[in-house]
Design brief:
Helix content is about 85%, strand content about 0%. Strands 1-2 form a two-stranded parallel ribbon. It is globular.
Length: about 425
């Protein structure tokens, strides 16, 4: 059997096993969307949505650049083992800088939300943010070692399932609304702290090369910061202008649309590190085949999942909250944006693997405009304004990134 045939078989097996894990994550998130509003009440759930988004943004500032840094830095000579091209000192500095930047982001967003809360809660949520951000090293390790199905297990299934179980137990004692902040923090510390810290040590020891890590981390962080700011700007801006009940309802449809990103996340997790290695070693024909295979997986998965979500949502959303029936059109717009990101968005992932500066230039031009548009649209048009801006931004950004990637690879002799 040829190497290409073995890889195709491995990709299909990884898709099935990762799909099973993703279904578990889908179940955990669906239960949260169904049960948490009932256990906490609309106002408390709106506050949860607002603060949880702060945690997602700040931890993403840490997690995503570290995850991609590990992916793009794998030393191809270390087949079957984790070995990175970076020097140990510079890699350690990159991790330290990531933690510091994520912490500062958390403090700024927490204060900007203007929500009342104790100092101990603010510190605890900050600790949970740092622990969640360190998942980037553990996830990156799984990705480069082809353990695709294990990437999401702790973050998408075990952690939310534990949180939901703890809140359910608190509800039995009539304390769900009072205890959920503490239980949210506990779910991150109990599930993620030890695995992430142990993985961080392994990845740190794997940095045995001599290449710089801080410079690519800096570009990855700038690029990711622009992306994650736009990704969660809708919830944060709605939280600043509209009621907590509206924040909670929009948070539900935004997270449902995020599930469609499985197409992107699987394709990027499975193929970006292969593409980066093939490109670095000059195997342009193999890199071209990797691009085509990733696009096919991303399109097939995202379109299938989006069609199912659009069909089922008119029946499912009113079961969560009767007023969510009015959010169906906004959900469809968010699903369309997710399809675009899961297909054309892969061009940006591959371009980042070549050099983070390429996508950074595009995002510097586009992302601030999207935030300004969101600030204008949300106060005037509410959730429909947020969803429309999200779709328009996804279309313009990804079309531009696909055009730039095609031109770049053509110039370098690796046509897409």
């Amino acid at each position: 059997m040829s190497k290409a045939s073995r890889q195709r078989g491995s990709d299909l097996r990884a898709l099935v096993s990762t799909g099973v894990v993703r279904l578990g994550g889908l179940g955990a998130n669906a239960l949260q969307a169904f049960i948490l509003p009932m256990l906490l009440g609309p106002t408390a759930f709106g506050l949860f949505s607002s603060l949880f988004t702060v945690l997602l943004v700040a931890s993403g500032i840490i997690r995503v650049p570290l995850e991609v840094l590990v992916q793009r830095g794998r030393d191809g000579r270390g087949e079957g083992a984790l070995r990175l091209v970076y020097g140990p000192r510079e890699f350690g500095l990159a991790v330290l800088f990531a933690l510091l930047l994520g912490t500062l982001t958390y403090v700024g967003l927490y204060l900007a939300q203007g929500r009342s809360g104790s100092a101990s809660f603010a510190i605890g949520l900050g600790a949970a943010t740092v622990i969640a951000g360190l998942s980037g090293l553990r996830r990156g390790e799984h990705l480069v070692l082809e353990r695709t199905a294990r990437v999401e297990q702790l973050d998408a299934i075990v952690r939310p399932a534990l949180f939901l179980g703890l809140v359910g137990a608190a509800w039995l004692f009539g304390r769900a609304e009072q205890w959920w902040p503490t239980l949210l923090i506990a779910s991150f510390l109990l599930v993620l702290a030890w695995p992430n810290l142990v993985a961080a040590q392994r990845v740190r020891r794997a940095a045995t090369g001599s290449e710089a890590a801080v410079a690519p981390w800096r570009n990855l962080t700038l690029s990711n910061g622009l992306s994650i700011g736009v990704k969660h700007a809708d919830v944060l801006i709605i939280g600043a202008y509209l009621s907590l009940e509206t924040v909670g309802r929009y948070f539900i449809i935004a997270r449902l649309a995020d599930l469609i990103a499985f197409g992107y996340s699987f394709a990027a997790a499975r193929f970006v590190h292969r593409f980066a290695t093939a490109w670095r070693e000059g195997r342009h024909g193999e890199a071209r085949a990797i691009i085509g295979r990733a696009m096919a997986y991303g399109a097939a998965i995202s379109c299938l999942m989006a069609a199912g979500a659009a069909f089922l949502s008119p029946f499912v959303l009113p079961l969560i909250d009767p007023l969510l029936a009015d959010y169906w059109l906004a959900l469809v717009l968010l699903l369309a944006a997710a399809i675009i990101n899961s297909t054309l968005g892969l061009c940006g992932a591959f371009m980042t693997a070549l050099d983070p500066r390429h996508m950074l230039k595009i995002k510097i031009a586009c992302n601030p405009l999207a935030v300004v548009a969101m600030l204008v649209a949300v106060p005037r048009f509410g959730v429909m304004g947020a969803a429309t801006v999200t779709l328009g931004f996804a279309l313009s950004l990804q079309l531009l990134s696909a055009f730039m990637f095609r031109r770049l690879t053509r110039e370098e002799g690796c046509g897409s």
